[in-house]
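worker-03 picked up job from queue 'complexes'. Input manifest follows; two sequence lines, order preserved.
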Amino acid sequence: MKKPYFIITFLLGLTIALVMGRAILQNTLSVSGVLVNKIDQEISYYKTQNAILSEQLLTASSLASIEKKAKKAGFVSGKTAMVIKTSSSLAVKP
Amino acid sequence: MMHQSIKDHGDHAELMKWRFPFIFSIFVLFFLLIIGRLFYWQVVKADMLSELAQSQYNGSVSIKPERGEMKTSDGFPLVANKISYLLFVNPTQIKNKDQTTKTLSSLLNVPRASISALLLPGRLWVAIKSGIEAREKERIENLRIPGVGFEEGYARFYPEASMAAQLTGFVGKDDIGQDKGYGGLEGVYDRLLTGKQGYSIGKYDALGRPIISESTTVNNGFDGSDLLLSLDRSIQFLVENKLKEGTRKYGALGGMIGIMDPKTGDILAMASSPSFSQAEYWKYDENLYVNPFIANTYEPGSTLKPLVMSAALDAGVIKPETKCNICGGPISVSGYELHTWNDKYYKDTNMIEVIQHSDNTGMIFVAKKLGADRMIDYLTRFGIGKLTDIDLQGETAPALKARSAWYDVDLATTGFGQGVSITPIELLTAFSALANGGKLMQPRVVVSIENQDGKITKVPPRVLGTPISKKTAEVMTEILVNAVEKGEAQWCKLKDYRVAGKTGTASIPLKGKYDPSSTIASFIGYAPAEAPKFIMLVILEKPTSSIYASETAAPLFFDLAHNLLEYYDISPSK
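worker-03 finished. Artifact:
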């Protein structure tokens, strides 16, 4: 019986290729952990900064803060309101 | 010479004879020691080392959920979250305990003795102080104190400070130190707001960096849902300021104001004074955590008269022009002589004038015409004696007396709002039926709930019933407009708008009698009368500038009503 040299060679080659591939991949991934860790830290940092800025924004846009700033800028509450009574404009009169 | 050489060789052989076994035995001993040590680590201590290794490369990180926010009707977060840190210490890493204690004590404003007592040897993790803000954390971190670390988390943040504190409630701790909502919305919606904690399990290298070739299990928790409230931030702000001003101006012990949209039951504002700050709730008396607008009971006095009058009109036992034939003087009921509030009597007065003069004798006439059975039936239909089921924690509602306990005098006094206890929210809800064509709406604070995926679930308005017909509601509204135009509070009415309303000066029961020197002054009303945009109840507790509502609660009501009508851009109706 003729020995299947081609298949044996192919399987051997494939095995070597897969082993090498796995080694390369493992090697790459093992270094990526450092990068992932760095990215995680950066995400955490920006998340914290974002939360701090949101807090400042909300405090600055609160009504109590706006009232204080408005008073400081010289605004006073209006005592009277001008009202236009119910007569229709000329354009809509028949 | 030869002999000497042979002798040396013999000595050398003798030496070698001992040296080999000696070196050999040292090697054997050395290997035995190694084998013994290996046996110790690999057999005796195998389990412990295995656990230690597992704990080193198997890392579990808990993912804390963010508590849901509460947003006012303009989308502004009334209750939000901020980054907060917990400072902890690893006592085994501390180099100088005294110095560390001293430094932390001065930085955190915590007594030295408290910190020192916590730093016991053998402990690996000791929490010192929570609620540390980002800037403070950075400042402490820069000092690089050995053994001191921080754990990041969330804490409640109130951009509008203590606004609507008794309505929102606060977040405290439960028995096991977890966050828990107490009172108001935090209490009712605690589970929805809390969310669910998640965790991530993965493999990490010696420096704690993730090994991403290894599998990582992530159990996703979820953040709490956000609540969108019916509360109008501008109105709430205005109401709180006016209430503080009003209680000071009229020398009142306290006060409360509730504003509702009668068409939907939406609470637009709810404020009480005194109140507390949610962020520092532990600094206040526990009694202040309770929302008096939904929990305190009082005798409503004359503000109940329109409900009794509308019940009688709806039942058809009287008409607006019906004349009172017993109103010429005080009325004696079961041995009690009942008077009007100012001892003025109007013979043959009609029902419109009874409300206008807030005539107690006229209301006794109405109550008698109505009878106890129908009185109880209508009050129940208006929701008196029952919880409104508003979505706030802590609501109370004293039940109406059983029919068998109603005597003639009870019927008479209930006619003018004494001898019956209700909560302000019950009165506001019942009165809203007059403003909403006879339909009674359930009061609500949350109009929709948004989950972490952005899915919005709307809470639809709910009709509780129709205690009176639309026609009766319209007639009653006109009677109330007349009361504002010609009644005791006419001096402070709005010139350009038609407002329907009623004053109430209720006596306070004290040791079986009524206290003659102090009252609960209130005003309830809605505007514009023809298409009400809001209904508002103003209550002042024991005002001292005057005991009468027409001189205290009424001007405060009209001041606020004027602001609200302007705010809503409603054109004058007169």
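worker-03 released lock.
Chain B is about 35% helix and 20% strand.
The domain at 64-195 of chain B is CATH 3.90.1310.10 (Penicillin-binding protein 2a (Domain 2)).
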